[in-house]
Each structure stands twice: as structure tokens, then as C-alpha cells.
């Protein structure tokens, strides 16, 4: 048997219980893998893969100062304050002793306090103290936070904690909360409501949702396996869930709609499933391929977060396609016309009656556009370009502890530390100096580092640093605090100047290698790792998308038009991101946080995701237009029919994805607010301005040139994505010659 979408659909429909049994077994294995392997396998770190300066600085520092297995380096700081007592009072000393010295949590009990005579741990007003901690892992971080929150209930004291481990714990917790609040409590119910309205029947509406859930579970199981040999970000779960809902529902929507359409035309059940396999399933295969190709571009970025997000999207994309090609036909074969059970009053009857027909509303819009194609084209282009203009002011960065909601311990601790101990930090700049082997070079390097430390102590952006010398004497490290959030734009600008100007000037002519590390330096390298490969990723996605569409539609013009239109929708989404998040236009109304930066990974991620998702609609719409054109040879009629007949399905699919990603935007993590908002507005633009105005006007003006393919590309294979071959009728388009195809 020749392997094809038709063969897969037919075989699955003939043996539904075997297919469903196989998928059930796979799902059970996936659940076992998730329970056994996924927990604890994901990271919040963004590990670079290109060995940047910050990584080399860390490696040099660890070689010179090997970690002591008997002690933990400082990762977090507890801040204790009392407005009633000073640190010298018995009440304050007793409180600190009970909280720290006598604690059952090892990270607290082994910590040093001011009770041992270290006055540097006491604030200037002597009403606050800090306790540096070395927290081993997330479990210990949770225990410390629990003890600190209990101690904070004492009305005489305020206690908080902040640092790397507690920040990671809070980010993980917020990520889980956003997933539950956004996707499970909003995205999923909203998608179900839209599905019920689109299909007009409860059973038909639940099938795509079931497909999405199966795809997510199986993809999470694969993620659990992939996380064993590779480091994956915790945010892969959020991305995989969102994309799984969007793709699983979309692909099922296309196939089920085509099946119902074929049944409405009078085909038998088996024949309708076969026709859907030949048409809609093939469209799903091409759409899924385009999406995966777009996601592969993100694997070129040397960032573990970007690669994790790409891996999650690719895994759930592939699983969603396979499920739509096999499991869905099996369910259709098992249910038959019972898929239309539990019809919704009024909506259900109208939905079935209009299956496959041209929608009057959208048809009227397209006819109006085609009556004035030049005006429609100019106006729609003007709107999109105007929306895209703010992109020129885009600043990229990342959100740190200061962007967390105030209810989290790490945010409360950061604010307390900034108030009482502005020069204390768990994330200083680490200036690592490796000098030459001669005594003279070591002396020169040491003197230069000391001068640099003195200069930075007088800079309001930095604090007083400390210098350590390795046992061998050839490596010295200056740990210099950075004022404020180490991820803030101010800190990033300060460390960028330190790396590019201050360090080279201080060590000019000296035989020494100087590397700048620390959290802020890591952020700078992260920005570079995301921004520098952007042109390559964009070119990769554009070229492969163009080639794929050229092969599918045998037209370089259709392929180029689709690519340009997608670029316009992405550009408009970028501009709106800047307007809302950087300038705060409508941020309060939408419930977003205003910030001075766009998350560094968001623009490139949006580009890849939007190109992949938009291809779903482009393939579905353009294939219907081509099918009609082959029948009538009339471009305007083909465009009108194509838009009108697919409008309900494409609009429903777009609204589902908008609902899913609006769930992300409803969360408190700024990065997911920006991502969710960007995807939602881009797809709204794509489903309205692009599909109903810009595409019809452009295709109407191009006429026969829409289907232009150079003669030297005639060897390309012929694919029919949607609809079988039908007998063409004489052309009514005066611009088309009889030989033109």
C-alpha cells in the first residue's frame, strides 16, 4: 500500500479500535514518563551554547577557586528588620538565633550572622541585618521560603529572602500559576466555546479538544525523555501546552469540517473520510511541515531557552499532525454521523446547512474590496506600516526579580535589600584577571585591578568591591556589586560600558587576560546570542517557507505574496508590542505591566511561530482559491469563493489560537504577557486585514500572474492540497489565456 494521507485515513477508519488502542497505549506510556522523569528535569537557567565571555569568566574563576564541598557559596540573602528593636536588643538577638542558628533547615543553621561579630551584616540604622545563605537546590529553597514566611508573621519583625535559588523557585511557581490560570482556566474553556459555535454540536466541538489533549500528553512524554540527555528550560511546558492546544485544535478543525462538508454533499461515511484524508489531511501535513520548518530556525540560536521552546513546539507540532492523520480518522470512523450529536439550538442547524458554502458576510467584504482593489491595497498597507513603525524604538532586555509581583518572597527580599543594604547583592560583577607568569606582569595586573576597583567604588552604578587572589597568584577576581536589579537596563548598560571601555582602558598594555562575568554579564551575552543570529534565522525561515509554498502551489508569485503578507503581520505585531509594553499605551486597560524592554527572545520567537501558524491559514485559503480557479479560470471569482467558503473555519481557528495565547497574556510573567499578546494581535491582523482586504486586493490586481511559474521550474511535482481534480470550465477572466495555468 502506498503511504499517503488518503491511505492513512482509510486504514485508520477501517480499523478504529486498533488505532485508538495504539494511541491509548502511547498516551499511558507518556503519562508514566511524565510522572517518573519530567519533575526536576527542567531548568530555569538559560545556558548559552557558544562559550561567551561570561562562561569563560566563570570557568576561569572555578579553576582558580575550586568549590569547597564542605561549604556552599552564597546564593541568597535573608533580610531581617524591626522598627521596634535594634540589632543590639535581646529581642532582636533572640529572634535571629531562633530563626537561623536553631533552624532545622540546613541552609539557615550553617549560615553566619552578625551575632558572630561581623558588623558588615548590620544596616546603618542598626535596625536590620542580613544573613547570607548557600541554598543547595529548589527543595531547600522551598523550605527556606516557608520558614521565612512563618517568621514574617511576627508583628515586631519583617523577614524576607532573595537571591538566585529563591528567584528560580518563584519563577517556577509563577510559571505554573500562569499555566493554570491562563491556559487551563481561560484558554481551554474559551477554545471549547469557540469550537461549539463553529461546529454547532457538542460532540464535534469536543473532538478537536480531545485531539489537542492527547497531543499535549504525548509530546510532554517525549519531552521527559528528551530532558534526560539535554538541558531543557522549564518554560517548554508552557509553550508546549499553548502550541498543543492551538495546533491540535486547528488541525482537527480543518479535517472534521471537511468530513462534514463531504457528508453534506451526499458521500458515504467511508468515502467522506477518504475525501478528507485526500484533501484536508494533506493540507494539515503541508501546514504542519511549514510550522516545523519555521520552528527549526530557532534551533540556530545558541540559547537553551530558545532551543527548548523550539523543541517543545516541534514535538507537539509533529505529534499533532500524526494524530490528525491517524487518530482523528479512526474517531470519525467510529462515530460517523454521531459527531453531529447534541446540536446547539439555532447555531447547529445553520452550521450544518452552510457547510462548504460561501459565507455571505465575508463574500460581501471581498466583493467590495475587489471593486476598489488599489484603494483597498493602499489603505491596508498604510495601516500595517503605521502599526509597524514603533519597532524602530524597540529595546530588548530581560525581566529579573524587579518584574515579579510583590507577593513573591524573592521580590519582597529584593526590595528590602535595596532599602537597607543597597550595596549588598548575590549577583556581583566578577572581574577575572589571569596575569602572565612573570612577577612583573602579576604586579602590574594586580595594581590595575586595584585601581579599577577604586574607580568603580566612586561610580554610583557600582559598589565597593572585594579582591581575591588565587593560591598560585596568577588569577585575581574582583567582586563588585551592581546597584539595583542585575537584569535591569541600567545594570546592563553599566556592565556593557565596563566590558567595552573601562576594563580595556584599565589594562591597556598589561600582559593579562581580563574577563567580566556575573549575572548581568551573562544577560549581555544572552542578548547577543539571540540578536546576532536573527538575520540567519529570518533568512532560513523565509527561504524555506518560500520554497515550500512554491512547490505546493506551483507559483513563485503566490509564495512571495504569502511571505510578504506574513512579514507585514509580524511587523505590525512588533510595533504594537512596543506601543503597549514600552510606551504603556493601553497597558493598564489590558492588565499588562509597562516595562522599558521587550524580552530578548520574544521577537525572534514571534517571527518563527507566526510564520508557522500563518501558513496554516495561507495553505487552507490559497488551496481553496486554486481549486476554484482551476474550475472557473476566473481569478476574482476564485478569490471571492475561497475567502467566503473558508472564512468561518479560518476565523474560528484564529480565534481559538487568540484565546489560547490570550491565556498566556493573562498571566503575571512579563515574557509570556508579551508573547501571548504578540501572537494574539498578529493572528487577529492576519485573520482580518490580511485575509479579507490585503490578500484579495493583491490577488485581484495580479490576475493571471498569481499563478506564474518560470518554465525552468516546470519540473516541480504537482500537489493538490485541498480538493480533488475537477473538470475546468472555459475561462471568464479576460486576463487569462487558455494555455495559462
Keywords, separated by commas or semicolons:
single chain, 741 residues, alpha+beta, Multidrug efflux transporter AcrB transmembrane fold, Alpha-Beta Plaits, 4-stranded antiparallel beta sheet, 3-stranded antiparallel beta sheet, 26 helices, 11 strands
Structure characterization notes:
The chain has helices spanning about 5-15, 15-40, 55-65, 90-100, 105-110, 140-150, 165-200, 200-225, 235-265, 270-280, 280-295, 305-325, 325-335, 345-355, 360-370, 375-390, 410-420, 440-455, 490-505, 520-530, 535-555, 555-580, 585-590, 600-630, 635-665, 670-700; strands at about 40-45, 75-80, 130-135, 160-165, 230-235, 395, 430-435, 465-470, 475-480, 510-515, 600. The chain has about 750 residues and is α+β, with helices and mostly antiparallel strands. Among the domains are: about 360-410 and about 535-730, Multidrug efflux transporter AcrB transmembrane domain (Multidrug efflux transporter AcrB transmembrane fold, Up-down Bundle); about 430-515, 2-Layer Sandwich (Alpha-Beta Plaits), CATH 3.30.70. The strands form 4 sheets. It has a 4-stranded antiparallel beta sheet with strand order 8-9-7-10, with helices on both faces. It has a 3-stranded antiparallel beta sheet with strand order 3-2-4. Helix 24 (about 600-630) runs antiparallel to helix 25. It is elongated, with a radius of gyration of 30 Å.
Amino acid at each position: 500500500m502506498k503511504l499517503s494521507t488518503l491511505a492513512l485515513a482509510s486504514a485508520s477508519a477501517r480499523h478504529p479500535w486498533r488505532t485508538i488502542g495504539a494511541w491509548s497505549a502511547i498516551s499511558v506510556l507518556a503519562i508514566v514518563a511524565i510522572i517518573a522523569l519530567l519533575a526536576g528535569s527542567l531548568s530555569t537557567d538559560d545556558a548559552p551554547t557558544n562559550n561567551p565571555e561570561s562562561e569563560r569568566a566563570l570557568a576561569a574563576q572555578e579553576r582558580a577557586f575550586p568549590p569547597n564541598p564542605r561549604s556552599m557559596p552564597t546564593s541568597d540573602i535573608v533580610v531581617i528588620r524591626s522598627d521596634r528593636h535594634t540589632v543590639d536588643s535581646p529581642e532582636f538577638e533572640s529572634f535571629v538565633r531562633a530563626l537561623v542558628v536553631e533552624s532545622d533547615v540546613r541552609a539557615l543553621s550553617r549560615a553566619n550572622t552578625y551575632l558572630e561579630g561581623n558588623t558588615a551584616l548590620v544596616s546603618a540604622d542598626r535596625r536590620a541585618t542580613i544573613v547570607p545563605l548557600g541554598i543547595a537546590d529548589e527543595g531547600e529553597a522551598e523550605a527556606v521560603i516557608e520558614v521565612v514566611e512563618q517568621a514574617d508573621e511576627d508583628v515586631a519583625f519583617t523577614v524576607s529572602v532573595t537571591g538566585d535559588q529563591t528567584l528560580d523557585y518563584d519563577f517556577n511557581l509563577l510559571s505554573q500559576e500562569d499555566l493554570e490560570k491562563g491556559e487551563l482556566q481561560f484558554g481551554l474553556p474559551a477554545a471549547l466555546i469557540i469550537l461549539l459555535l463553529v461546529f454547532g454540536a457538542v460532540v464535534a466541538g469536543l473532538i478537536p479538544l480531545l485531539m489537542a489533549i492527547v497531543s499535549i500528553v504525548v509530546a510532554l512524554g517525549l519531552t521527559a525523555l528528551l530532558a534526560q540527555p539535554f538541558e531543557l528550560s522549564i518554560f517548554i511546558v508552557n509553550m508546549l501546552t499553548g502550541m498543543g492546544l492551538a495546533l491540535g485544535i486547528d488541525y482537527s478543525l480543518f479535517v472534521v469540517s471537511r468530513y462534514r462538508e463531504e457528508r453534506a454533499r451526499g458521500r458515504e461515511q467511508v468515502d467522506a473520510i477518504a475525501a478528507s484524508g485526500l484533501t484536508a489531511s494533506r493540507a494539515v501535513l503541508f501546514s504542519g511541515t511549514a510550522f516545523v520548518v519555521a520552528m527549526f530556525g530557532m534551533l540556530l540560536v545558541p540559547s537553551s531557552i530558545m532551543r527548548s521552546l523550539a523543541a517543545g513546539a516541534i514535538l507537539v507540532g509533529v505529534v499533532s499532525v500524526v494524530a490528525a492523520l491517524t487518530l482523528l480518522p479512526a474517531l470519525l470512523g467510529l462515530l460517523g454521523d454521531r459527531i453531529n450529536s447534541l446540536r446547539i439550538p439555532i447555531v447547529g442547524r445553520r452550521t450544518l446547512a452552510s457547510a462548504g458554502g460561501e459565507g455571505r458576510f465575508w463574500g460581501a467584504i471581498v466583493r467590495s474590496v475587489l471593486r476598489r482593489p488599489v484603494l483597498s491595497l493602499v489603505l491596508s498597507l498604510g495601516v500595517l506600516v503605521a502599526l509597524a513603525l514603533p519597532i524602530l524604538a524597540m529595546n530588548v532586555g530581560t525581566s529579573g526579580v524587579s518584574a515579579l509581583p510583590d507577593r513573591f518572597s524573592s521580590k519582597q527580599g529584593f526590595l528590602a535589600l535595596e532599602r537597607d543594604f543597597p550595596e549588598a547583592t548575590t549577583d556581583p560583577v566578577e572581574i577575572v584577571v589571569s596575569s602572565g607568569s612573570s612577577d612583573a606582569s602579576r604586579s602590574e595586573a594586580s595594581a590595575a585591578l586595584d585601581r579599577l576597583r577604586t574607580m568603580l567604588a566612586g561610580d554610583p552604578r557600582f559598589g565597593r568591591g572585594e579582591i581575591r587572589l588565587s593560591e598560585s597568584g596568577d588569577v585575581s577576581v574582583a567582586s563588585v556589586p551592581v546597584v539595583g536589579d542585575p537584569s535591569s537596563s541600567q545594570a546592563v548598560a553599566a556592565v556593557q560600558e565596563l566590558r567595552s571601555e573601562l576594563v580595556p582602558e584599565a589594562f591597556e598594555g598589561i600582559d593579562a587576560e581580563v574577563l567580566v562575568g556575573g549575572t548581568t554579564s551573562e544577560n549581555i551575552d544572552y542578548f547577543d546570542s539571540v540578536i546576532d543570529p536573527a538575520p540567519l534565522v529570518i533568512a532560513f525561515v523565509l527561504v524555506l517557507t518560500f520554497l515550500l509554498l512554491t512547490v505546493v502551489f506551483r507559483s513563485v508569485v503566490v509564495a512571495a505574496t504569502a511571505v510578504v503578507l506574513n512579514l507585514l503581520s509580524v511587523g505590525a505585531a512588533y510595533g504594537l508590542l512596543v506601543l503597549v509594553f514600552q510606551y504603556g499605551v493601553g497597558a493598564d486597560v489590558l492588565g499588562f505591566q509597562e516595562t522599558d524592554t521587550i524580552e530578548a527572545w520574544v521577537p525572534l520567537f514571534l517571527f518563527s511561530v507566526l510564520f508557522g501558524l500563518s501558513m496554516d491559514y495561507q495553505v487552507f485559503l490559497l488551496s481553496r482559491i486554486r481549486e476554484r480557479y482551476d474550475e472557473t479560470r476566473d481569478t476574482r471569482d476564485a478569490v471571492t469563493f475561497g475567502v467566503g467558503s473558508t472564512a468561518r473555519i479560518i476565523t474560528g481557528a484564529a480565534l481559538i489560537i487568540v484565546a489560547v495565547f490570550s491565556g498566556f497574556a493573562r498571566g503575571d510573567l512579563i515574557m509570556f504577557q508579551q508573547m501571548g499578546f504578540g501572537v494574539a494581535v498578529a493572528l487577529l491582523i492576519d485573520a482580518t486585514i490580511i485575509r479579507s482586504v490585503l490578500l484579495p486586493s493583491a490577488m485581484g490586481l495580479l490576475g493571471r500572474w498569481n499563478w506564474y511559474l518560470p518554465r525552468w521550474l516546470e519540473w516541480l511535482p504537482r500537489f493538490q492540497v485541498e480538493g480533488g481534480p475537477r473538470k475546468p470550465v472555459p475561462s471568464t477572466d479576460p486576463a487569462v489565456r487558455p494555455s495559462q495555468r
